[in-house]
Amino acid sequence: MIQDKKNHFRLIQCFLLVGAIGIFHFTPLHAQKIKPKQVLKEMEAVADWQIEHFRDTFSIDGKKPHHIADWTNGALYVGMVKWAALAQDDRYYEWLKSVGNEQDWQLHWRKYHADDHAIGQMYIELFRKYSDSTMILPTIQGMDYIIDHPSEEPITLDNYQHLERWTWCDALFMAPPVLAKLANITGDERYTDFMMREYQATTDHLFDPTEKLYYRDNSYIGKLDHGHKIFWSRGNGWVFGGLTLIMDEYPVGSEEYNYFLDIYKQMAAKLITIQTPEGHWAMSLLAQDLYPTPEASGTAFFTFGLAWGINHGVLDRATYEPTVRKAWQALTSYITKDGMLGYVQPIGAAPGSAWPDKTEVYGTGAFLAAGSEVYQLYKK
Length: 380
Hints:
By secondary structure, this protein is mainly α. 56% of the residues lie in helices and 2% in strands.
């Protein structure tokens, strides 16, 4: 009789144990809590891996690494600056300073090309920390020249002839934040006036008011891919992330802030309706059926932007937090055991392919920017 009771008790224990394991195993990833300390660990792992592999070749031609002032690295520095501000020591700031010193604090070589202005964002943030004017003088001189000698090229992009103006949506991440930052630190309204005029011209040209998304450039307007309009994930990620960088530089409620906030809110409302069940965004935003492979760079920029909105009180937490949580947990699942962020689409201008064992520096930059806001979101 006693033995029967012991066996019965053991049987109940087994059922409880199996049930507990089952509950743990089948709890959806996006239902699990995000821990701020874990966010920092993941950011540190990805940042350290990227610095160690900074001079790798990645996806250009396999023969040489990106120039340190290239737009690819400019996007990396945007995220790395945000991580440096959270890190426990200054070694990341020191690394960024070493880049600036190596480049002699110069922008890249094309005077008007927005991609070659992106590194200026890092220079300005380091100036804000160290108050060393040598860090920003070349950027000021470069932007002043453009404002004093504005390009007369058309806003359309025809066979890559016209890259002196912001004729492709990626440009809205690269150059406008530089001008907004300069306007803020110098008080010179010329930077704002020029930036607003050019940004509006690009938006009037590439923003689809029905879909609330940006075409990559005019070559995609009117095109369909198996019945779907073509809205490139990373291209819209560039815009969405860039909007937050610009709004950071203007007073809440100002005319400039409200202009960008209106675009931002339209995009945010659209983005939460087209996130995939797995948590990422498809490379062609309206064509999940055609592009099922995860893609980290666009997803990271969207995560960054949405978390920023919750943190700044412009997006409702109850509505948008589940989207951020799913996206962040998807992103961290792409990190290899060595700290590399996988599934970053190579350099391109349209939906394509991504692989778990391939990355790019701009993907790391987007991930670190996202992590900086995700950390703040869950630290609260």
